[in-house]
Each structure stands twice: as C-alpha cells, then as structure tokens.
Amino acid sequence: MQQLFSAFGVSWNLLIAQAVNFTIVLVALWYFLYKPVGAMLAKRQELIAKGVRDAEQAAATFARADSEAADRVKAADTEAEQIMTAARDSAGAEKARLLKEADERAAAIARDAETRAAETHARAQRESERDIARLAVLAAEKVLQERP
Amino acid sequence: MHSGITVVLKAEHLGSVLGFPVTNSLIMAWVVMALLITAAFFFGRSLTLVPGKIQAGVEWAFEGAIAYMADVLESEKLARRFFPLVASIFIFIALINELEFFPGVGSLGLVHASTFLPILRTPTTDLNFTLALAMISFFTIEITGIATLGFFKHAGKYVNLKSPLGFAVGLIELMSNLGRLISFSFRLFGNIFAGEVMVLVAGYFLPYFLPAPLMGFEMFIGLVQALVFAMLTLFFIKLAIMEPHEAH
User: Fold this and answer.
1) Which residue spans within chain B are E strands per DSSP?
2) Partners of residue B126 in chain A, C-beta under 8 Å
3) Which residues of B touch A32 (CB under 8 A)?
C-alpha cells in the first residue's frame, strides 16, 4: 500500500490540499453562481406567476364588466318599455276622459237647449192663452155694448 | 535535454511553502480555481431578469440538472440540497480536463538537475486530486446514508447478523462501497492520464497530424469522465438514502 501510494505520489498533505481546493470551489460556486442563479430563477418564476394571475384577474374583471354592461342595457330596455307602456296607457286614459267630458258637455248643452225650448213653448202658450182670454173679454164687451 | 517519451506517474514537486509540498498539479488546480471563481463571480453579478444567451444557457443547464436530480432522487428538496456538490464536481473536473491540452500545460517548465519539471500538470492526472474528490464523494454518500436512515440502519446494510447469507451480502456491500474509493479515483485518473500518454505517443507516430484529433477526442473523454464522476456520486447518494431491502 505504501509502495503504491509512493508510486503515485499520494501524500496526506496533497490529498488535504486538493480536498480544500475542491471545497473552496464548491463554496465559491455556491455563493457566486448557484445562489444568484437560483434566486433569479425563483424571481422570474414569481414574476411570471404574478403576470398570469394578473391576466386572469383582468380577464375576469373584463368578463364581469361585460356582463354588467349587458345587464344594464337589458335593464334600460325593460325600463324604457315600461315607460312607453305607461305613457301609452296614460294617453289612452286621458283620451277617454276627454271624450267622456266632451260627451257630457254635449249632453248638457242638449239638455239645456231642450229645457229652454220647452220653457219658451210653455211661455208662448201661456201668453197666447192670456191673449185669447183678453180677446174673448173684449168680444164679450163688444157684444154686450151692441145689444142694449 | 531529454529524448524519448517520459511518462511521470506522479505530480512533480516544484518546491515547498512553509514545509508544505507544492506540486505542479496543485498549481494547475489553483489556476483553474482562479479562472472558475472569477468567471462565476462576474457571471453571478451580471444576472438580469431578461436573460442574455449565456445566462439563458446556464439557467437551462441549472434547471435541467435539478429536474434530472429530482427525478433520480425522487425529491425536489434533496435535489436542491445535493445540486451544489454534484454540479461543482462536474464543473471543476470538466474545466480541468478541457484545459488539459491548453498550450503551456505540461510544456512550460523548469529544468532542474537536468530533468524537466512542467509548472502545470492537469490535476486529474494526479492521484492526489482524484482520490481527494473520491473521498469527498465517498464521505458525502456515507454521511447522507447515516443522516437519512440513522446510524444503525445504515450500518445494518454492511453488518447483517440475521443470517449467514445476509452476513455475506453485507460484507460484499461493505467491500464494494469501500471499493468505490478506488474505482472513483482510478477511473478518472486512468482515463485522463492514459489520454495524455496516448497523445504523447501519437506525437511520435505521426507528429503534427495525429495528436490534434486525438486531443479533441480526449477533450470529449474529459467531459464524459466529469459527467461520470458527478452522476455516480448522484446515483450512490440515491442508493445510500434508499431503505435496505428486507430479508425475504
């Protein structure tokens, strides 16, 4: 064993020196290479995940806004229809009321005219009766005066 | 100065600092470390949320490796815990192997007492380096096993007194796990060292023409060996955290 080691020049000092060399390389690469690269990868992954999350959120917000807009338009449509119906209804009612009022007024005028006509007729009759009576009296007076 | 092929099995001592031996493979390891840490430092600071091409590539590899490890270990958490170790093994070995034939490596050197001593030697062609990595991998695997299953359950994989057959299986398991130290270190060392020797020999067969494609091939081998080392560490971690099979 000793012969083998001396043939290959193996000695504890050199073994330890090379082991220390490798350890230094390991630590240096760890500190200068693996850690920053790993951190950068993690950072980028986080950033991409955040980007995807944001995009999803934006899409969801957009979809919500879209459906909300559709809802609003629908509601506005319904409301407009309601207003139209109400307006049409109230216009009909007004028309009916006006017609009725006009009818009533016409009826009243007709009634009035009738009453007035009847009154005129009655007065004329009364006057003519009075005239007739007076004429009768005058005629009777005349007859009586002629026959003395 | 020197003629013929000289194959030196061990890393040459260039001197010592405070009684501590300094070999050319140690110097090369420091050079690669400096390159790697500098690159990692500037890259890690230049990260942006919108990645450039290099950053996108690194992130792709990062995520792919963790996803694959999570697949193997069947746990995202464990994958993240062991990723730094496995990735560092791969990156360090791969960069060392890719720089194996970089101009100057093995060719720049000093002449000392009429022998040529290269200043830079690929650390993976030095058993000290591969054995050190093998030990780190080995201890990580065993400690992970103990931490996940508990000491006695983990030890029960090796020392099984329930039946003679179980005892034999446990012994084989123990030997094969200890054998990993050797297989890990010699696989990497052997592959890369043999590649270097092959390129050296090829230079004598057909100078200028043959070595270049072989160097390309050896760079591919270097990448594969780095991957093998990292993947085997991963698979053995997986084996260590698995419950031992109940006796039927």
Assistant:
1) 13-17, 20-23, 109-112, 115-118
2) 9, 14, 18
3) 37, 40-41, 43-44
- pLDDT-derived band at A109 (thresholds 50, 70, 90) equals very high
Is position A57 within any domain?
yes
- Backbone φ and ψ of B74, nearest 5°: 60, 35
Cβ-nearest to A22 among B40, B41, B132: B132
Among chain B residues, the shortest Cα distance to A19 is held by: B132
- Tell me which residues of chain B, numbers 72 to 111, contact chain A at a CB-CB cutoff of 8 Å: 80, 83-85, 87-89, 91-92
Would residue A55 count as lying in a domain?
yes
Q: What is the pLDDT of residue B155?
A: 87
Distances (CA, A) of A92 to A88, A89, A99, A132: 6, 5, 11, 59
Its domain, for residue B69, covers 13-241
Residue B62: inside a domain? yes
Q: Mind telling me how many Å the CA of B2 is from chain A's nearest CA?
A: 22
Determine whether the interchain pair A7/B9 forms a contact, defined as Cβ–Cβ distance below 8 Å.
yes
Average pLDDT on A107-133 reads: 93
Between residues B1 and A141, the one the model is more confident about: A141
The structural domain count of chain B equals 1
Residue B245 pLDDT:
65
Using a CB-CB distance cutoff of 8 angstroms, which residues of chain A are in contact with residue B23? 9, 14
Number of domains chain A contains: 1
Helix (H, G, I), strand (E, B) or coil at B109: strand
According to the model, what pLDDT value does residue B197 have? 92
| Contact residues for B66 (Cβ-Cβ < 8 A; gap 6+) | B76, B79, B80, B83
| pLDDT < 70 positions in chain B | 1-3, 245-248
Question: Would A4 be classed as within a structural domain?
Answer: no
The residue in chain B having the minimum alpha-carbon distance to the alpha carbon of residue A42 is B49
Given a contact cutoff of 8 angstroms between Cβ atoms, the answer to whether B36 and B139 are in contact is no
* C-beta separation of B238 from B154 below 8 A: no
Per-residue model confidence (pLDDT) at position B246? 52
pLDDT, position B3: 60
Q: Do A25 and B44 touch (CB under 8 A)?
A: no
Residue A19 forms part of a structural domain: yes
